[in-house]
UniProtKB/TrEMBL annotation, chain A:
SUPFAM superfamilies to which the protein is assigned, alphabetical: P-loop containing nucleoside triphosphate hydrolases (SSF52540)
InterPro entries named among the record's database cross-references: P-loop_NTPase (IPR027417)
Name the record gives this protein: Sulfotransferase
Top-level taxon: Bacteria
From TrEMBL, chain B:
Native organism: Gloeobacter morelensis MG652769
Name under which the protein is recorded: Uncharacterized protein
């Protein structure tokens, strides 16, 4: 549970490498109730990568490989199962990876409280990990990410055009003015950080004791030997050294590289380009005096209070 | 004026085993904003020291003693501190008394002579929460340490009858302190923070020392600590818990009073890794060979010694710590899971801690939960259960373990009740005293 660009891809891959766990790419299955609704959102929101993670997962579990053909067949499977609920599809992929426990980190989950509640209702015994990152470094990366999204939309649109795909304008609502998807995105990264973490905190507070935990991404990535065993202990999986060592190779995840042209993403592009762990510690910059200029006074105060709650 | 009358318990409200010790009524104070106090067992009798804070101009300090014969409370000591800056009405009380406008220091001297009371400076506004009251037996004497924004004093009595003021300071001229703790061949006390650049600790040769010197704690302020809030001697060391609003409380250990910088050690940092959700240490007690501390979030509506959403920790002799009540968390020391399996505030995140005492082999935590007082007890520090005490509303002012039972002193006026408006009838001030057997 974390906003974009808060180490979620690498942390999900770290967890997913544990022998008892399976790290999925971004499935986005908590965003809607049914696959058809997810597909509609993909089209309506000019969000061509929405089902990349699901297609890659299906290709991987069905055929043990992710290439254009296996992903194509996965997409055919999705089209044939549009009537299924997202929970059914999630259980379908979980059955494939059983007895391993699935790990999902789709950023769309935290965009709305109802998405988080949907996740809880689908899997009432799931553990929820709130992953945090310093608001300033997070905001810088989110700004970068937003520009990448726009570029990605263009690139994917071009790629899809090359393979003969196009968006049916009938699916676009009146609100969608810019069919090319290159309209400037007016989002304040700091406000996005604040909004996302506020929603997550509100959701986490309602969870039973211990079902949700929070960790600073900087701490985890700087001291893997201290925090990975704790994560494993909390999740109730093996904590032996062999299992912990296994976790330290996120680049070995089948979803830690760019996918085929018909499903290239499903994870953060930056992670896909360089999935290896950095050997250096992740610095935590000071909080005060580093962000206030970018937002109004009230927002700055809220960001500071929330960041201090997280230990920044 | 003190009412010696005991109020009868209300049927159905009080649990079996509860006995009324009457009320401590106060009829001569207008517009009381808060009451902070402490109980002590001395010479086989119960004493209560209280500071009644008037919103405008003065603090009444009063020590009373329970008389089992009359079942009433007798006054054994009173004092008064007056603020020269009113919060409402005339801008400056001195202007009221001395319209010829002499210098402020001259006015204070005149008023001090005329009224025979201690006059404080201009610290009242914005510091109303910093009220501390301690009452304890030390070397066969009863000692009271009373401190508010209007000044601090230490009064000592050999037999509980006559009292000698051994230390008196106004914040403008020096540091006021509270919670004196015998340590290192002398006494260490915590600064109230009412004076500028106050060090966290002060040291005197004895409780009746005329002078108190600063004890430097390297790095204390630099790490965002405002104050040392609680202190206790444990395993031959002095432990101090801090108030740190931005980074979360810290627990420091001091091995010796003549400490070198390296002798200070942080036992817990960053609000036990809940950061600003744990801003202040509110209580410390010895129990079962360990030190138990409570941390939580402070708020302007709470007293200086109160926290909400509180967590309970156990400090072991080897300086490791366990989470007893609170949120599970990751930490540099490993996964911390509450041994009681209970979340903050004994599963009530809005609960406000009001006391932590040991009584009859039980560790007892009293807190306000949704307007009612609740008492949880534990025989081992880990397994906790609620002890029914009946339906008490309002605020717990003080708690004390005595050979005759656990004594609780409650102010039935809700803590968050707004003060009466000018012209409205004044609310009655009558603290209710109860004795419980576990």
């Amino acid at each position: 549970m974390t906003p974009p660009r808060s180490f979620s891809s690498v942390v999900c891959a770290l967890l997913g490498r544990h022998p008892d766990l399976y790290g999925f790419p971004e499935l986005n299955l908590f965003k809607t109730d049914t696959i058809e609704e997810l597909n509609f959102a993909r089209i309506q929101r000019r969000w061509p990568t929405a089902m990349d993670g699901l297609a890659r997962t299906l290709a991987e579990i069905h055929e043990g490989t992710q290439n254009e053909l296996s992903v194509h067949r996965a997409r055919v499977w999705i089209n044939e199962h549009m009537h299924l609920g997202c929970k059914e599809v999630f259980n379908y992929v979980l059955d494939y990876v059983a007895p391993k426990i699935g790990v999902d980190k789709s950023p769309t989950t935290i965009l709305k409280v109802e998405n988080m509640e949907r996740a809880f209702h689908m899997f009432p015994k799931a553990r929820f990990l709130h992953l945090t990152r310093h608001p300033v470094t997070s905001a810088k990366s989110i700004a970068e990410f937003l520009s990448v999204i726009i570029q990605t939309r263009e690139q994917v649109g071009q790629m899809q055009a090359r393979v003969g795909w196009s968006v049916d304008p009938a699916f676009l609502s009146d609100e969608e003015e810019d069919l090319k998807g290159n309209k400037p995105v007016k989002v304040s990264p700091l406000k996005l950080w604040l909004s996302a973490h506020t929603k997550i905190m509100n959701f986490m507070e309602r969870l039973p004791l211990g079902q949700g935990m929070r960790i600073r991404g900087e701490d985890l990535l700087s001291d893997l030997d201290i925090y990975l065993p704790q994560l494993a202990e909390w999740l109730g999986v093996r904590t032996d050294q062999e299992a912990i060592d296994e976790m330290k190779s996120p680049e070995e995840s089948p979803y830690a590289r760019t996918g085929p042209i018909n499903a290239p993403f499903g994870n953060d592009p930056k992670f896909l380009a360089n999935p290896k762990l950095r050997s250096s510690k992740v610095p935590i910059p000071p909080l005060k005096g580093t962000f206030e200029w970018a937002v109004d006074t009230d927002t700055a105060r809220e960001i500071q209070e929330l960041a201090q709650q997280m230990g920044y | 004026m003190i009412h010696p009358l005991a109020s009868p318990p209300v049927p159905g409200q009080v649990a079996p085993g509860a006995h009324s010790l009457g009320t401590i009524a106060q009829l001569d104070i207008d517009d009381v904003d808060q009451i902070v106090g402490a109980l002590a067992w001395f010479g086989g009798q119960i004493y209560f020291a209280g500071i009644y804070i008037d919103r405008d101009v003065q603090d009444f300090r009063r020590i009373v003693r329970f008389d089992p014969q009359t079942r009433g409370w007798q006054t054994v000591h009173t004092s008064l501190a007056i603020n020269t800056k009113r919060r409402s009405g005339p801008a400056n009380m001195l202007d009221t008394f001395f319209p010829d406008n002499p210098t402020e220091e001259q006015s204070k001297d005149k008023l001090t002579d005329a009224l025979g009371v201690n006059l404080a400076g201009e610290q009242a506004l914005g510091t109303g929460r910093n009220v501390y009251c301690c009452l304890f037996e030390e070397q066969g004497r009863l000692v009271a340490s009373l401190s508010s924004p209007l000044g601090g004093e230490v009064v000592i009595s050999a037999a509980g009858e006559s009292w000698q003021t051994t230390f008196e300071l106004v914040p403008a001229k020096g540091h006021t302190f509270h919670q004196p703790v015998p340590f290192g061949g002398g006494v260490v006390a915590l600064a109230t923070g009412l004076s500028q650049n106050a060090p966290p600790l002060l040291r005197g040769e004895a409780m009746d020392a005329a002078g108190w010197e600063e004890v430097p704690v390297p790095g204390f302020k630099e790490q965002g600590n405002e104050l040392a809030c609680r202190a206790a001697v444990f395993a031959d060391s002095l432990y101090i818990g801090t108030r740190n609003l931005e980074r979360g409380f810290q627990l420091w250990r001091l091995g010796a009073i003549a400490a070198q910088p390296g002798d200070f050690e942080q036992v817990i940092a960053s609000g036990a890794y809940l950061f600003s959700d744990n801003q202040q240490v509110a209580a410390m007690v010895h129990f079962g060979g360990c030190l138990y501390i409570v941390g939580g979030k402070t708020h302007s509506a709470l007293r200086a010694h109160q926290v909400s959403g509180f967590e309970l920790f156990r400090i072991n002799a080897d300086r490791s710590w366990d989470l007893i009540v609170g949120k599970p968390r990751f930490s540099p020391m490993g996964l911390k899971v509450p041994f009681s399996a209970m979340g903050p505030g004994f599963d009530d995140p809005a609960a406000v801690l009001q006391c932590l005492v040991v009584h009859e082999g039980y560790l007892c935590a009293g807190f306000a939960s949704r307007g009612s007082f609740k008492l949880f007890v534990s025989p081992d520090g880990e397994q906790w259960s609620e002890k029914p005490v009946g339906h008490f509303v309002g605020e717990l002012v003080a708690a004390l373990s005595t050979p005759q039972g656990l004594v609780l002193l409650l102010n039935p006026r809700p803590q968050d009740q707004p003060p009466a408006k000018k012209g409205d009838p004044l609310p009655s001030i009558a603290l209710e005293a109860w004795r419980f057997t576990l």
